[in-house]
Amino acid sequence: MLPMNTLKKALLISLLVLLSASQAGKVSAGFYVWTSIGPAGGIISALAIDPKTPDTLYAGTYFGVYKSTNGGVIWSAANNGLTATNVTALAIDPKTATTLYAGSYGGGVYKSSDGGGSWEAANSGLTNTNVQALAVDPVTPATLYVGTYGGGVFKSTDGGGSWQTASTGLNNPDVHALAIDPKTPTTLYAGTFYYLEVSDTGVYKSTDGGGSWHITGLINTRVSTLAIDPKTPATLYAGTSGSGVYKSKDSGGTWNAFNSGLPTVTYVNVLAIDPLKPTTLYAGTYYSGGLYKSTNSGEWHEINIGLINTDVYALAIDPVSPATLYAGTGGAGVYKSTIGGGSWEAVNTGLTASNVYALAIDPVTPAILYAGIWGGGVSKSTNSGGSWSQVNSGLPTDTSVTALAIDPATPSILYAGTGGGGMFKSTNGGGSWSPINSGIPTYTNVRALVIDPVTPTTLYAGTELNGVLKSTNGGGSWSTISIGGASALAIDPLSPATLYAGTSYGVYKSTNGGSSWNGIGLNGYYVYTLAIDPVTPATLYAGTNGGTFKSTNGGGSWVAANTGLTNINVQALAIDPATPSTLYAGTWGGGVFKSTNGGGSWEAFSNGLTNTIVQALAIDPAVPARLYAGTYGGGVFSMVQMVVSSQIFMPLLQHSP
Question: Which residues contact 468 (CB under 8 A, 6 or more apart)?
Answer without folding.
Answer: 460, 461, 462, 480, 481, 482, 486, 489, 501, 514
